[in-house]
C-alpha cells in the first residue's frame, strides 16, 4: 500500500467514526446543571448537581453520577436520543440526537493532500513525574487540568521545537497545538496529533492532525493547547477547517 493509500484508509476510518449516530456531530444541546432539581425541555425527569456528583430523578430513586473532572462522561438513553452527563468544572448534560442537522449534513472533513515531508521524527522526553497542566477551553471561563507525562522535541527547517504532550489513547500521546495556518485554513482554536513513543523516539505525522469536536459543534468544551504549543510555521497538513465552519 502506498503512502497516499495508507493515509486515505486512515481518513476513511476517521470520517466513519465522526459519523457515529451518537457521536460528537449528533450533539444538539448543552446545559449546565444547577443545585436545585429542575427539568430541561424535551428531557425526562429532573436534573441537579452538588459538589460531588450529578443526579437524575425520573419517578423513583435518584440516579447518581460521580465523574472525573475533564474525564469521560456517562450516558442515559431516552427514546431515540442519548443524554450525556459530564464534569467540566461543574456538571453538564448534552443531548446526542441521530437526527442532528450537523450529522445529517456531514460530508467528510476537508484536508490537505498527504505529503511525506510532513512525517517528522522527534524525541520523547518524559518528565520525572507527570505534571498537572491547566489549559483554557473554547468555552469562556472554563479550564481543564490534564497530566502531561512529557514533551516532544523535533526539528523543522533547522529549528528545534518543543511540544508538551498529554496522555492519549492506548498508552500513546495526545499533542494539542496551533500553527500559522490556525484561523486561516485550519480551525483556529486547536488541532490534535496522536503519537506513540518507541524507545524514546516518536514519529509526528502531521498528515493525521485532526480537529477536536469543537471544530464541528458549539456544544463541545474542548481544551486549548498548553502554553508553548504554538508552532511558528504553517503546518499545511492534516485536517482543515470543517465545512460546518465555512
Short description:
With 246 residues, this protein is mostly beta strands. The protein is 8% helix and 38% strand. The protein has two domains: 24-104, no CATH class; 108-241, no CATH class.
Report the order of strands and helices: HEEEEEEEHEEEEEE
Distance between the termini: 33 Å
Query: Rounded to an integer, what's the Rg over CA atoms?
Result: 20 Å
**Unreliably modeled segments:** none
How much helix, percentage-wise, in residues?
A: under 10%
Account of the protein in words:
By secondary structure, this protein is mainly beta. The chain has 2 helices and 13 strands. The protein has a 6-stranded antiparallel β-sheet, with no helix packed on it. The chain has a 4-stranded antiparallel β-sheet with strand order 1-7-6-5, with no helix packed on it. A 3-stranded antiparallel β-sheet has the order 2-3-4, with no helix packed on it. The chain starts with a helix and ends in a 41-residue tail after the last strand. It holds the Pfam family DUF1684. InterPro entries: DUF1684. It comes from Lentzea atacamensis.
Secondary structure elements and pairings:
Layout: H1 3-18, E1 27-32, E2 46-49, E3 54-57, E4 63-65, E5 74-78, E6 81-88, E7 90-96, H2 101-104, E8 119-136, E9 143-156, E10 159-167, E11 173-177, E12 191-195, E13 201-205
Amino acid at each position: 500500500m502506498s503512502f497516499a493509500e495508507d493515509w486515505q484508509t486512515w481518513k476513511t476510518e476517521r470520517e466513519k467514526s465522526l459519523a457515529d449516530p451518537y457521536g460528537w456531530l449528533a450533539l444538539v444541546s448543552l446545559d449546565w446543571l444547577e443545585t436545585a432539581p429542575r427539568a430541561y425541555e424535551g428531557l425526562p425527569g429532573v436534573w441537579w448537581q452538588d459538589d460531588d456528583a450529578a443526579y437524575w430523578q425520573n419517578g423513583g430513586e435518584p440516579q447518581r453520577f460521580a465523574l472525573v473532572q475533564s474525564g469521560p462522561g456517562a450516558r442515559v438513553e431516552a427514546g431515540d436520543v442519548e443524554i450525556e452527563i459530564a464534569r467540566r468544572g461543574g456538571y453538564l448534560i448534552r443531548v446526542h440526537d441521530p437526527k442532528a442537522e450537523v450529522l445529517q449534513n456531514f460530508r467528510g472533513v476537508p484536508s490537505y493532500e498527504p505529503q511525506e515531508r510532513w512525517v517528522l521524527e522527534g524525541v520523547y522526553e518524559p518528565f520525572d513525574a507527570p505534571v498537572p497542566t491547566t489549559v483554557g477551553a473554547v468555552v469562556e471561563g472554563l479550564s481543564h487540568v490534564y497530566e502531561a507525562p512529557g514533551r516532544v522535541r523535533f526539528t523543522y527547517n533547522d529549528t528545534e521545537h518543543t511540544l508538551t504532550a498529554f496522555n492519549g489513547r492506548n498508552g500513546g500521546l495526545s499533542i494539542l497545538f496551533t500553527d500559522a495556518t490556525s484561523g486561516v485554513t485550519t480551525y483556529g482554536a486547536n488541532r490534535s496529533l496522536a503519537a506513540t513513543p518507541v524507545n524514546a523516539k516518536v514519529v509526528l505525522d502531521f498528515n493525521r492532525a485532526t480537529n477536536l469536536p469543537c471544530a464541528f459543534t458549539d456544544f463541545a468544551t474542548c481544551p486549548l493547547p498548553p502554553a508553548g504549543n504554538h508552532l511558528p510555521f504553517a503546518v499545511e497538513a492534516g485536517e482543515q477547517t470543517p465545512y460546518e465552519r465555512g
